[in-house]
From TrEMBL:
This is Reverse transcriptase domain-containing protein. It comes from the Eukaryota. Residues 1-22 are annotated as: Disordered. It comes from Schistocephalus solidus. Residues 44-251 form the Reverse transcriptase domain. CDD domains: RT_nLTR_like (cd01650). InterPro entries: RT_dom.
Amino acid sequence: MDTVRKTLKQLQPTKSPGPDDISAKVLNELKDQLVSLLSKIFESLMEAGALTTEWVIANITPIYKGGERTSPISFRPVSLTSICCKMLEKISKTEMIRHLEENNLPSSYQHGFRSGQSCLTNLLSSMECWTKSLEMGLSVDAVYIDFSKALDKVPQRRLIFKLRQMGVTGNLLKWLADFLTGRRKRDAKSHWETVHTGVPPGSFLGPILFLIYVNDCLDCLTFEKVMFTYELMLWRKRLPGLSDMREGNVR
């Protein structure tokens, strides 16, 4: 109950509601009256490993991110889901991160979505390696990769398989599977349609689920590398005049 109360207090009153039209402002103002009821609802859903259908639907709204305002690629789609579901997501995310960190499961190359890691540690790690290489008289070839629409392209069944591999089992795995599958979305001018792939953009769980999905891929890459959220840097040291970053290797 204390966790739910804390989550209610942290709600931003200006947060847009989902299709159920229950606003964060109402939940925050009535937190003392709702904390017991919401705690029971959350506990029941986690024990059942399920979600109510009203919590797996989303209104999609475009958020301007820069560039030409007349171009669709200048906007980032965000899923407006139930605020109550976002609360449960946030609580579940905390438990998942604790499980991953306590068991040392995240790849050491990933600096995003992790406690004690940041964009700064990502840059310092790569700069340290590059500086040492230059001091040794070596050159460095680097490739920067940005995963475009990363959350939209995560295969749901494969993600569930990887969750199981990382020790996420039981009711939590069932709940996450229910969270991922059978989702529906719409925008202001369209009808409801089922989402067959990806994780909800703008959700609390989306980033950590993406981290889990790509986690084992980082260890398979033969290049030196670091990753921050959806951006990957690959590099290889070489003697001046030689090139190791051949097209075939990069692929």
